[in-house]
Write a structure and sequence with these properties.
alpha/beta, Rossmann fold, three-stranded antiparallel beta sheet, 11 strands, 26% helix, globular
């Protein structure tokens, strides 16, 4: 599936003790082969804004949603205006989209492995999920060197001229996508055997989960 055929929505919600979520979303947004694409960060991370994006792009047949922020048990995601339950997302898609879609979800948040995989749910043909950890684990962010080549279009929030905070799962996933020139989203969901995931599991107790 060529990414230019996919409605792509990148969501980064910094809150309480999370500081790199907006950078996670911006990092993905800067991939220049995605279109149409939308960026929701911090105060714009509202369910109403997600709903509006669905309304004006309801003829797309493939949808990618990336979320970085607070994850809760049961696959729930913390937005600024409310908690988005998986069932809420599926209901919104069923409400607005004209044709059945393939739904691609990438999650960098705690307990993200608990997001359910839905198949044949009215307007959803299939759901592909790439999560940063298991349903009982937490996802980690860290300070890394600011790589300007990854942020050519939309600049991240940086601590100083050399460092920034970012999710370790997101940073490594995007680095793999760029280094391996993975222009097809289906290839992203075939990366479960990358060595870096084993390293994250050993160091951070953070095992990536792919459901497809």
């Amino acid at each position: 599936m060529m990414n230019k055929e996919i409605l792509s929505i990148f969501i980064g919600n910094n809150s309480s003790n999370l500081y790199g979520c907006e950078n996670d979303a911006i990092l993905f947004y800067n991939l220049n082969f995605l279109y149409p694409k939308y960026l929701l960060i911090n105060d714009s991370v509202k369910i109403t804004n997600l709903e509006n994006i669905f309304k004006i792009n309801n003829n797309n047949q493939n949808v990618l949603i990336f979320f970085s922020g607070h994850g809760l048990k049961g696959g729930c995601l913390q937005f600024k205006d409310n908690i988005l339950k998986p069932s809420d997302l599926f209901i919104l898609i069923n409400k607005y989209f004209i044709n059945p879609i393939n739904l691609y979800i990438i999650l960098d948040c705690c307990f993200s492995g608990g997001f359910p995989q839905i198949k044949n749910y009215n307007k959803i043909i299939n759901t592909f999920i790439f999560s940063s950890c298991q349903s009982n684990q937490r996802s980690s962010e860290s300070i890394i060197s600011y790589n300007r080549s990854f942020f050519k279009d939309y600049k991240p929030h940086i601590i100083n001229k050399n460092n920034m905070i970012i999710g370790l799962f997101t940073f490594n996933l995007v680095k793999i996508i760029i280094n391996q020139s993975l222009l097809f989203i289906d290839d992203w969901f075939s990366l479960e055997n990358e060595v870096i995931w084993k390293e994250l599991e050993e160091i951070l107790n953070q095992k990536i989960i792919i459901k497809k």
